[in-house]
Design a protein that fits this description.
There is one protein chain. It contains 13 helices and 27 strands. Strands 6, 7, 8, 13, 14, 16, 17 and 22 form an eight-stranded mixed β-sheet that branches. Strands 9, 20, 21, 25, 26 and 27 form a six-stranded mixed β-sheet that branches. The chain has a five-stranded antiparallel β-sheet with strand order 4-3-2-1-5. Strand 25 and strand 26 form a beta hairpin. The N and C termini lie far apart (59 Å). Bound molecules: calcium ion (CA). The site of calcium ion (CA) has 7 residues, from loops.
Length: 438
Amino acid sequence: MPAAPCERHKGSDMNNHKSWVGGANTPDTDFPLQNLPYGVFSRAGEAPRCGVAIGDEVADLAALEQAGLIAVSGFAAPALNPFMARGKVAWAALRARLTSLLAEGGDPVLRDDAALRERVLLPQSGVIMHMPFTVAGYTDFYAGRHHAENVGTMFRGAENALPPNWLSIPIGYNGRASTVVVSGTPVRRPLGQIKPPEAELPLFSPTKRLDIELEFGAVLGQGSEMGTPLTVAEADELIFGYVLLNDWSARDIQAWEYQPLGPFQAKAFATTISPWVVPKAALEPFRVAAPERARPLLPYLREPGPMLYDIELEVRMRAEGQARDTVISRTNTSELYYSAAQQLTHHAIGGCKMNVGDLLGSGTISGPARENRGSLLELTWGGKEPLTLDGGIERRFIEDGDTLTLTGFARGDGYRIGFGACTGTILPAPALRAAWAP
Ligand code: CA
């Protein structure tokens, strides 16, 4: 792992890098030259291919490849996996080349060629974003201490809030890769078994307690061999980049099904990620140390340096027909207790093989105060304290037609590193079938 750069790099030296691309130097853009996040896009009727966000544009990597301006090939593919599999030397080389092509004072070959610019730079407003990578496996962790304590208090009482293993293990479960979707994909309210507290037996119903989980996702660009454990430093080297992640959850289905094997249908219906994968390299200046350890970690989990990031997060909610979103939560990824590298280390320590394209969810990120909570379950304390959206609309959980949006950025000196919005709108549950009638 590189030495902790921290404050030094947030300011002057990186900030001198301005881009000649429109919108790239606006202080509130998510996509300055310092970011260069990767995604998969297309225009209507075109095949999806890889691109990089810069200012208001997408730089078409397949077009750059075709023009012979970058040395890496394979960007006509509809997924980042082939590029990620090339490894960190290729990642760094391409990032340096793109920085030069897009920087003021860099290689002018693209800047000074109008016909080429026309082919390579496409307005973001005119493209459709697709899943940026093929998800090989999806594992979701539970590394936010405030979230674990809040949920534990609601489910088991304050005295048993944190499970006994929590301060020693980055606990997690194997989720479903098949239903990880890109931002903007509608999400259908799931059906399932619900057992109301007063009922003796469960009933079959659409979830009545549909929720979000505000998470940070790590994308693996390299794998590991079966039977081969990793150190935390080695695990960090496998991470290509990060996305925002909404781990949609059906709380009533979860409460009935989760013991003893953990969440199943309550989480399997959808997980939404932001369209852009921010490379780990862009986040290096924003590393921060983990909170003080309440219990010493076993040596295999100790961090060799700051492993968390300072990324400001926001959750917005809008009911159908409303003109404006209401901000319902603000928190920070630095509230996590375990880093993605520690989670990955623990994931592989027993011999599990990790693959290119594996996605690791951080677990819900809540902060200490009510307005910092990363799920409706916590924000409304199990539905007991409703939220009020702009216009006076009350919400305990998510209603059909509601749109939930996660955003996040790391704040540098005069620039910020963002992910694009991670958003989804809820569709009504599937119609009940005659074969299911009681
Ligand atoms: Ca989760």
